[in-house]
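From the pipeline queue, job 12 of 40. The input is one protein chain; the requested action is below.

Action: predict structure.
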Amino acid sequence: MALKKGENAPDHAAGGWNRGTPKNGTGSKSLERAEKPLSSFSQRRQEGTAQTEAPFWEQPLSDLTRAEWEQLCDGCGRCCLVKLEDEDTGAIYHTSVACKLLDQQSCRCGDYPRRRRYVPDCVRLTLEKLADITWLPPTCAYVLRHQGKPLPPWHPLISGDAESVARAGVSAQGRIEAGEDDVETDDLPDFIRLWPKRWPKKARW
């Protein structure tokens, strides 16, 4: 099995994210970071409910505004982990190695506005690309809403608490074993892990 490091994959609303994209799968959201702070999740819930019959996160993805699209990101940091692609089969393997810009404690990008200066191949997640991307975690809000499923109770837009993602075991916080600058490319296969593509038991509902 010949493995190669994929492109950097997606940047997210709350952080610049990811390493490793499959040949035909690009990531990262196509829209820029929303300016509203995380602490205003509850306020955004109230505003969204007051202005529409249903909260924006229950509406079709195609109807979301730029800021609403960005707010769907739960900040788990999983998509900012380095990925490897099997050159023979195209299979994607996730590692526990974080993108150079990812803050391993907060799971947010260390320099989101200028992320492309440091990670030129960081890709953007768009609605058009979403259907073709297979490496996003099953817990990802974009994946769930694209499938017509509701956001889980631990999502910050539902819980009103950004820390609920970590408490549910969804966040990469505490599970990152190294940063990409600290690991040689040839050693990346040693860090292949299954959890980035799994739904944590205590996060199910």
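Job complete. Residues 11-42 have pLDDT under 50 and may be disordered.
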